[in-house]
Amino acid sequence: MNLPVSLPARPLRGRVRRPWRLAAEASALLIAAVVAFPLYWMVLSAFRPAGEIESTEPRPWTLAPSLDSFRRVFGQQEFGRYFLNSLLVAGSVVIASALIAFLAATAVTRFRFRFRTTLLIMFLVAQTVPVEALTIPLFFLMRDFGQLNTLGSLILPHIAFSLPFAIWMLRGFVKAVPEALEEAAYIDGASRARFLWRILFPLVFPGLVATSVFSFISTWNDFLFAKSFIISDTSRSTLPMALLVFYKPDEPDWGGVMAASTVMTIPVLVFFVLVQRRLVSGLGGAVKD
Amino acid sequence: MSPVNDRAVRAGSGTGTGARAAAAGVPGGSRRPAAARPAARPVRRRDGWTPWLYLAPALVVLGGLLVYPIYQLGLISLLQYTQAQVSGGEPTAFRGLANYAELFGDDRFWQVLLATVLFAAACVLSTLAVGCALAVLLTRVRALPRLALMLAALGAWATPAVTGSTVWLFLFDPDFGPVNRLLGLGDHSWTYGRYSAFFLVLLEVVWCSFPFVMVTVYAGIRAVPAEVLEAAALDGASQWRIWRSVLAPMLRPILTVVTLQSVIWDFKVFTQIYVMTNGGGIAGQNLVLNVYAYQQAFASSQYSLGAAIGVVMLLILLAVTLGHLRLLRRQGEEL
């Protein structure tokens, strides 16, 4: 696997004395186990038969894995639809915000114009806006435009909220493409649009992938907008709402909650594994620039 | 700040990018000559409207769904806006700063504000401590344990906040959770007491946010040239001394950004509190500002009070960000 951890060992490591290194490695493995434990427990509980979950002597394994909880989750009305809704919302946000952010990042890195610095500062400041507080005006905005209970009411705000960070992060990637390349393209007779989409876009694509992790996760995870804007038409609900159906504070159906959580976590994990190599490099760029 | 120190920081961050990018396999890493900096770019007359054309979609979306709602938020906070106005039963009345006066006169608000600040501070400090410590640990171990820790951290990072919250609740469940069995706590309820509930949420928040810190700081440490560390070791510096006097100054740009991100995230924490303490805890003992604003608006239909709380949060975060920008400027970073 192409994890950043396959980098060559740093030379200094040779100086670390052997018992110390073994102790460090043992603790690294132990910490990894502790960090992974909640996820392990989630998947394990999802596969436990009903009686075993409600046991007062929980064991870290199960001898009779069962799909009962998953059946209950998928048997819940329209769970598949919630899944598709979530996928649709997150997919639209990722694609739209990547394209819009790419154009904007190109503008602020490849051009000098008035208010450029002001805009950049605004993009940085915009990241600090507490999204949750804006639920109130957004609710009225959606109501006035008749967008309550539609997927658009989830897609549009999430595009807006993921843009500032995406633009901020993409700047480094756009900057990294040398000017000479741009001049060479123009000398060869390429139009500005052609340079933008046929040359710059493919070169910046890894950065777009890294950026899209953040917009995907924030959209996929969101349950506040779904809770606030999808008020009556449950066929437009998304996964987090479906999960909370099983989670009743007094009498939670833990098997159902864990199975639904597993179903909800897997797409994000897959997405992460697919892009993790770009993610680390992307963070490096974002943090520096 | 002394000029020498300043230069060291900038040199550190300068070499950092190239090495980090190359190490992490960015295609752009090697093609990043100094000439590519926009500062060196000659002004082209024919640019004209092109940048604005490129910016147009972003500005339209941000204007409509970020700037305008912020304006609306401010406006609502100045109005009398409850269920009666929402349904059109009563006309909206302008109240001026009366909502703020009501808010600031309410002991509850100050209590929640204090809890939010303390909770966010505890989360930020714990996240940074765990993230930095594990980043250093990652540089001390061979590939296999490193891979294990990295994978586990990515898993925690990828877990949605809602699922993370329910899973941690289940782990600490008084009846069926493994943690109470392991610690022999019987049916002790973690969400009953105010502090233990906050502590449980803190654990979840640290669990899902330390990976960002760890991965970023690790990438930063890798980018520090080995010779520098070797020179320090040859001069007889202890590990702690190397960290404090060599690594920390060189990593400062990264640490500032990571800290700012954590402050912003943890100050705005919503999902974890909302799910884990069931909307703010028993009698609202675990409320933080964000959840408080939401409850005021959507549970009590006090939309204007909720909006006023939102404005207060916005101003606090704005102050933090502007402070960060000033810090960046003083360090001589270019935007």
Automatic annotation (TrEMBL), chain A:
The keyword Transport applies. PANTHER family: INNER MEMBRANE ABC TRANSPORTER PERMEASE PROTEIN YCJP, MALTOSE TRANSPORT SYSTEM PERMEASE-RELATED. The chain crosses the membrane at residues 20-41, 82-107, 119-142, 154-174, 195-217, 254-275. Keywords: Cell membrane, Membrane, Transmembrane, Transmembrane helix, Transport. SUPFAM superfamilies: MetI-like. It comes from Streptomyces glaucus. CDD domains: TM_PBP2. It comes from the Bacteria. Residues 83-275 form the ABC transmembrane type-1 domain. It is found in: Cell membrane. Belongs to the binding-protein-dependent transport system permease family. It is a multi-pass membrane protein. This is Carbohydrate ABC transporter permease. Its main location: membrane. The keyword Ribonucleoprotein does not apply.
